[in-house]
Amino acid sequence: MIRLEGLRVQAGDFSLAVDDLSIARGEYAIVLGPTASGKTVLLETVAGLRRSREGRVWFGARDVTAEPPEGRGAGLVYQDYALFPHLTVAANIAFGLRLRRARVCARPAAPSRPGVPSRPAVSGPPAGGPVAAAGGRPVAGRGGPPAEDNRVRELAVLLGIEGLLPRYPEGLSGGERQRVALARALAIGPEVLLLDEPLSALDGPTRAELQGELRRVQRELGATVMHVTHDLDEALALGDQVAVLIDGRLRQVGTPEEVTRFPADVEVARLVGFKNVFPISIPDEGDVLAADRRKRLLLENGWELLAEPTGPAGLTPRDSPGRLFAVVRADETGIESLDGRRPVSSLGWTDGHTSEPGNLLEGRVRLVQIQSVHASIEVEVPPVKRGASPAVFTVHVLRSHVERAGFAAGSSVRLRIPPSAVHVCPGAGGPARGNAAL
């Protein structure tokens, strides 16, 4: 439905380059990136608010690269809502419909056929539009054609804001304003819906509620959505596809599971929440364990880790002339106390054994951070190589496990890391744009 080809955009000193990105009809696509990565520049280019120096923008089979914003059939919702404060909720929702009707009425009349008088062109918005004919004063409520009023009420019911239609934006909460902005974007029946950090200004509970609303509305309408955000939880909750944008370049495109399990490079790994990122070297191919094809990774502090080729073809030093990194999934790492208490992990191990043979490391707890449901435990593992620094691993467990196992700063613990929890990727901007894995 949306296809970007060879896109090059210049915004001051910032440059954006997207070689290829496709979003299928009815798909909810997330563009995930840190601040100043080019997310809004990309969205505005798709909307037609920015012109690209090179490349093409397609909506289905239609090349919209040269079309103005109003001709593209896209609905755009900004993070600051951009509601008209002098219009009611109903009039805000209907604004796009009435503006489109005004443009249609203002088009020059077609030449008349012989014997048929020509229809005079109409300029300005029609009666009942968002601006009244007399004095240009804003109309407070609805009052357009029945079809427009029906569309307004239909969307208000869909988004649960029918009781807000006569009110003005000033007295609305952030969640209510966002629903109004979404209804206004949907009113024109856009081919694509573009969302610019739509939930970033909301508090946690309201954000979670609106995430569910966005997904429900998108599925009910079958809308094609491009949603940009810096929030990983938002991306995982909403996205069918995630495109990672860093420094104006697409680093990886894939499903949420692919991006979070097999990050394409170390910057993507850190963006999607990996805490355990270690520079490594990979011994010669002769050191591959022939029995199961697992690979030995050598950490800088002398420890060795086994890793499985869990993604596409294995990554070797020949593939990446730069540095290689091991990323270890904190939520798949087991931890047990060495004082005789039962082992615990987010995987629910309770018998002291993982589901597969793996890596055993011993160290001391450096920090325990309690969160709402989970806890993060930092474990310092001493080096085995003279003069090297300790390695610090983070393990995520359920909050209840911390008290049960007695974890506290200074506790002696053992880590159990399955080879499948270890992934290898190149350094920042490495050669792997897809799901490169060991």
- CA radius of gyration is 28 Å
Question: Main beta sheet: strand number and arrangement?
Answer: 6 strands, mixed
Name the CATH homologous superfamily of the domain at 263-438.
RNA polymerase II/Efflux pump adaptor protein, barrel-sandwich hybrid domain
Total count of helical runs of at least 4 residues? 10
Strand order of the largest sheet: 6-7-8-3-9-10
How widely separated are the two ends? 33 Å
**Structural class computed from helices and strand pairing:** alpha+beta
Average pLDDT number: 82
Low-confidence residue ranges? 112-142, 286-291, 346-355, 431-438
The percent range for strand residues is: 25-35%
At the first level of CATH, the class of the domain at 263-438 is: Mainly Beta
Helix content: 10-25%
Q: Under CATH, the topology of the domain at 263-438 is which? A: OB fold (Dihydrolipoamide Acetyltransferase, E2P)
Oligomer: single chain
Q: What is the molecular shape? A: elongated
What is the architecture of the domain at 263-438 at the second tier of CATH?
Answer: Beta Barrel
Concise account of the structure shown:
This protein is α+β, with helices and mostly antiparallel strands. Helix content is 23%, strand content 28%.
Describe the protein in words.
With 438 residues, this protein is an alpha+beta fold. It has a domain at 263-438: OB fold (Dihydrolipoamide Acetyltransferase, E2P) (Beta Barrel), CATH 2.40.50.100. It is 23% helix and 28% strand. The protein contains 10 helices and 20 strands. It has helices spanning 39-47, 69-72, 89-106, 146-158, 174-187, 204-221, 232-238, 256-261, 266-271, 399-405; strands spanning 2-11, 14-23, 28-32, 54-59, 62-63, 74-77, 192-196, 224-229, 241-246, 249-254, 276-281, 295-299, 304-307, 324-328, 334-337, 359-370, 374-381, 391-398, 412-417, 422-426. Strands 6-7-8-3-9-10 form a 6-stranded mixed sheet, sandwiched between helices. Helix 6 (204-221) links the parallel strand 7 and strand 8. Helix 3 (89-106) runs antiparallel to helix 4. The longest helix has 18 residues, at 89-106.
